[in-house]
Write a structure and sequence with these properties.
Elements lengths: L1 H14 L11 E3 L1 E2 L26 E4 L10 E7 L3 E9 L20 E7 L7 E7 L4 E7 L4 E3 L7 E7 L2 E9 L13 E9 L4 E4 L15 E4 L10 E13 L12 E14 L4 E7 L27 H4 L42 E3 L6 E10 L4 E10 L2 E7 L2 E8 L1 E13 L4 E13 L11 E13 L4 E13 L2 H9 L21 E13 L5 E10 L16 E12 L6 E14 L5 E14 L4 E14 L9 E3 L2 E9 L6 E12 L4 E15 L2 E24 L2 E25 L2 E22 L11 E3 L5 E4 L4 E4 L9 E4 L3 E17 L2 E15 L8 H4 L6 E9 L2 E2 L1
Parallel strand pairs: 1-14, 2-4
Antiparallel strand pairs: 3-13, 4-5, 5-11, 6-7, 6-12, 7-8, 8-9, 10-11, 12-13, 12-14, 15-16, 15-46, 15-47, 16-17, 17-19, 18-21, 19-20, 20-23, 21-22, 23-24, 24-25, 25-26, 26-27, 27-28, 28-29, 29-30, 30-31, 31-32, 32-33, 32-34, 34-35, 35-36, 36-37, 37-38, 38-39, 39-40, 39-44, 41-42, 42-43, 44-45, ...
Length: about 900
């Protein structure tokens, strides 16, 4: 194993080649406005604009890299002691064809222009300000030379647009308090200006960034002429008030389910510039009531589902706090030392109650306050610090009018510190991270939780040959402390299963009061300057690693090797605009040295000259030795499979565009078969309105779905069954954007799922070479169903005596979730929300799927939440 990994890295070094073309440095010289600064009205008729010249030497990036643009674009930049002013003239010989669709902020459509400032002048970071022809704004921060884009950054700035017989105009005013720069008397900033010419799917740039460039900000031009400006500290406070009314089904006899509930809450958010480069965000009693609900799902795996963060306080500036173990998308790349949804989560504990008792359980843990310090110093230090405190939560329990309280979540402190230093002109960085979770556990019921949990890591990144090649290293550790019950739960959890009887290199110690682990990743490859990109990865997580107090971790005890290669054609030819082809190969071992999985993937994506696109992928899996299939039992040998996915999308510039996709998986030896089909219909009948309907249906049939573990005379029985699972989901999104500052959005998702179990079986030899030797299927003399009690009785030796029983695992799940949100930004940074959220759910257990269940959702009593939130920003 080690030889193969070493050879991959050696071959990569020998394969490196240099194909970097030198570009002339672009420069723009701005001028200072001493009086009569431009009025932001989109007209450009202020005399101040005569102080500087137009710059109009743009080039295409897409689709014809380096060619002249289809239409002319020009810009001017001015400044005074408080603001930067930008004028962009997007000439168009067919002004009636300018696309001015109105979307909500950061979701622009149609013709667009924008400016990006590398005011740190670090060749890595840029502040981006974009606007569509309809006046819709988008702002975001670029970091790591284009690797990350943070659209949750929300600066305060002004822009107006207008259309005339020559094209359209964007006029911007960007306060210096929203930018980060040093205090030098003479400033030198990186600069780029861009335009999206919508009709032709064209991207034009002032400073050329070739399609095969390994970076983005490092290719910017230069902005000269800014002198004697002072870094300005942003100070703002936004108090808010929230009124909420809930209506739900009344439950007779339950004093907590009266059918109605209401509350009024107050709080504030604040943003304080500690220095020009460092910003302190503070929130007290934060409200997240307008956040869209998570999508419905049925999780039959051993692992926790990962949900993306949607709360504004935690997502703004998260790039510096992100510390993922692997890049890319998917389950493995979601593993991270920081998973902000741990803060304010649903309480860990649910009280044990008698049948005649009722519980008033808090939905989430109250966040008393949180503070966040983020920024980048003039010396190249990126800083991220987060401190948050959540309240002790109690459940109220009623027994015939007598009340008692039980603690369900302890008072908890969460801390994160992140540092990263850029050196060698941004080609090299070193950094580290540390997190701490500390719980004040004062109740025996909560001794299963860690009292203290610490994680940390160091990272190193280096790029060379004009950033063509890269090498990354990350090393992490964890240490958790708690009662023996807590550490026993950690050892036997689904992330590690130390109790596996065949894992001779692992053992459970019920007396332990702490557990430690390590992990890390090595990455090396080529990411630019040519049609080929490739990379090799090595990732490891020791069995004792634990990140789930403040991070997200699915599983441990693995060493994984990945190789990725891409060939890309970006120049249009024949019927194609572009083609990408990717190849992936991976293998994994556990810490006992066993090869536990091997797989590969080849996929391609192409866009045609008619703006349609098509993609397809093939995924051979060569089988695995699963440590989680039997939920703590011995490892189970799973047969391989072959998967295929496809997707087709029509021209998304049109008023109506369609998308279709499928995923099909065939298991070897008929172990599993999955068929999933989805579609999307996007309808934009006029500029201010869009509707998207996205139905999907899937059918999963598996012979080896885990059911239960039962014990007979101290001997465990691991029970599996065949499952036929069908799922139907239909999401609907409606956007009505009356102005760039006032929008009404609706999201709804009916969801129906059913699972029917059959062919119950017990595991006999989990790693037998022959598939059918791994289990025994119960015959009619060994298993029977009790309709009244809804249980299966199992008599293994057919002697007429029941050895053990299992509950009927069949399920039918019906859910409907929706949000209707009206948002009005009546003043920059001051917002009024009016929200109606509705949820419906039902559950039963016949396991039969029926399309009519979608109609049955209508009859389910809804849980309605009506919310009004008003915030007002005071800025200094």
């Amino acid at each position: 194993m080690k030889k193969n990994i070493f050879l991959i890295f050696v071959l990569l070094f020998f394969a490196m080649s240099i194909v970097k073309a030198d570009n002339d440095e672009k420069k723009y010289i701005t001028g200072r406005v001493k009086e009569n600064s431009p009025k932001i009205d989109g007209k450009l008729n202020d005399i101040a604009w005569d102080l500087v010249e137009w710059s109009n030497d743009f080039v295409q990036r897409e689709p014809y890299d380096g060619k002249l643009p289809s239409q002319k674009t020009a810009f001017k930049i001015l400044y005074d002691e408080n603001n930067i002013y930008v004028a962009i003239m997007a000439f168009d010989t067919q002004p009636d064809s300018i696309n001015k669709r109105i979307e909500h902020k950061d979701n622009m459509d149609g013709d667009q222009v924008g400016v990006q400032f590398d005011s740190y002048n670090d060749n890595l970071t840029a502040f981006s300000f974009m606007v569509s022809a309809a006046g819709v704004k988008s702002d975001f921060v670029i970091s790591n030379d284009g690797e990350n884009e943070d659209f949750d950054w929300n600066p305060i700035w002004d822009v107006k647009t207008s259309i005339n017989e020559e094209g359209w105009i964007a006029e911007m005013k960007i306060p210096l308090s929203q930018l980060r720069f040093n205090g030098n008397e003479e400033q030198l900033w990186g600069l780029n200006v861009g335009r999206v010419f919508y009709r032709k799917g064209e991207l034009d740039l002032w400073a050329p960034i070739p399609q095969d460039s390994p970076g983005w900000v490092s290719d910017f031009g230069e902005l000269h002429g800014i002198e004697k400006i002072k870094p300005q500290k942003e100070i703002s406070i936004s108090p808010y008030v929230v009124g909420k009314i809930e209506r739900f089904e009344k439950e007779e006899g339950n004093p907590f389910q009266t059918g109605k509930r209401s509350e009024l809450a107050f709080g504030f958010d604040s943003k304080i510039g500690i220095t020009n480069n460092l910003t302190l965000d503070l929130t007290v009693n934060p409200d997240f009531g307008q956040v869209e609900a998570d999508p419905s799902e049925v999780n039959l795996t051993a692992f926790e589902t990962y949900f993306s963060e949607k709360r504004p306080f935690f997502i703004e500036g998260r790039n510096i706090m992100n510390y993922s173990l692997l890049p890319g998308d998917g389950d493995m790349s979601s593993e991270n030392l920081f998973y902000s949804r741990r803060i304010g989560r649903t309480p860990h504990y649910y009280p044990d109650t008698e049948s005649d008792e009722y519980v008033n359980m808090p939905d989430n843990t109250t966040i008393l306050g949180a503070v966040k310090l983020t920024g980048k110093t003039k010396n190249g230090w990126s800083i991220g610090v987060l401190e948050s405190i959540t309240n002790k939560e109690e459940a109220e329990i009623d027994n015939a009018g007598s009340r008692r309280f039980e603690t369900v979540e302890p008072f908890t402190n969460y801390f994160l510190g992140r540092l990263q230093k850029d050196i060698n002109e941004g080609n090299t960085s070193i950094g580290g991270i540390f997190t701490a979770t500390n719980r004040n556990i004062d109740s025996d019921e909560l001794l299963f939780l860690h009292k203290e949990a610490y994680t940390g890591g160091v990272d190193f990144r280096h790029q060379w040959k004009d950033k063509t090649y890269f090498f990354n290293f990350k090393g992490i550790f964890s240490h958790v402390i708690g009662d023996p019950e807590a550490i026993l739960n950690t050892q036997t959890s689904s992330a590690r299963y130390f109790q596996r009887p065949d894992a001779s290199y692992l053992s459970v110690d019920s007396s332990r009061t702490s557990l430690s682990g390590t992990g890390g990743a090595l990455q090396i490859g080529k990411m630019g300057n040519g049609h080929f990109k490739y990379a090799a990865f090595l990732n490891w997580k020791s069995p004792g690693l634990e990140l789930n107090d403040m991070g997200y971790l699915r599983s441990t005890d693995n060493i994984m090797q990945i190789f990725w290669m891409q060939y890309r054609i970006w120049e249009p030819f024949s019927i194609f605009r572009s083609i990408n082809v990717n190849f992936n190969q991976w293998s994994g071992w556990n810490f006992g040295g066993t090869n536990v999985f091997n797989g590969a993937n080849i996929n391609f994506h192409m866009q045609f000259k008619n703006y349609w696109s098509f993609g397809m992928g093939l995924n051979p899996d060569f089988g695995s030795i699963s440590a989680s299939s039997l939920r703590g039992g011995p490892s189970f040998k799973e047969s391989g499979n072959f998967g295929m996915w496809t997707n087709l999308r029509t021209d998304d510039r049109k008023d109506v565009n369609l998308s279709f996709g499928s995923f099909t998986l065939w298991g070897f030896e008929d172990q599993v078969e999955i068929r999933n089909f989805w579609a999307g219909i996007n309808y934009k009948p006029f500029d201010a309105f869009s509707l998207r309907f996205s139905p999907s249906i899937s059918n999963r049939q598996s012979d080896l779905q885990y059911v239960a573990t039962e014990s007979i005379m101290g001997d465990n029985r691991y029970l599996l069954a065949s499952i036929n699972q069908k799922t139907l989901s239909m999401s609907i999104r409606i956007n009505l954007n009356l102005t760039p500052d006032f929008s009404v959005q609706y999201y709804g998702q009916p969801f129906v799922a059913a699972g029917k179990y059959s062919n119950f079986k017990r595991v006999t030899n989990p790693i037998a070479d022959k598939y059918n030797d791994r289990f025994h299927i119960f015959n009619d003399n060994e298993i029977s169903y009790n309709v009244n009690d809804e249980i299966y009785n199992i008599d293994e030796n057919s002697n007429g005596s029941v050895d053990y029983s299992i509950e009927n695992p069949n399920f039918n799940m019906l859910q409907f979730r929706s949000n209707l949100v009206a948002r009005w930004e009546y003043k920059p940074g001051s917002i009024l929300y009016v929200v109606w959220s509705q949820g419906k759910s039902d559950y039963y257990s016949n396991g039969n799927f029926a399309f009519s269940d979608v109609n049955n959702l209508i009859d389910i009593y809804p849980h309605n939440i009506f919310l009004v939130k008003l915030s007002y920003r005071f800025g200094v």
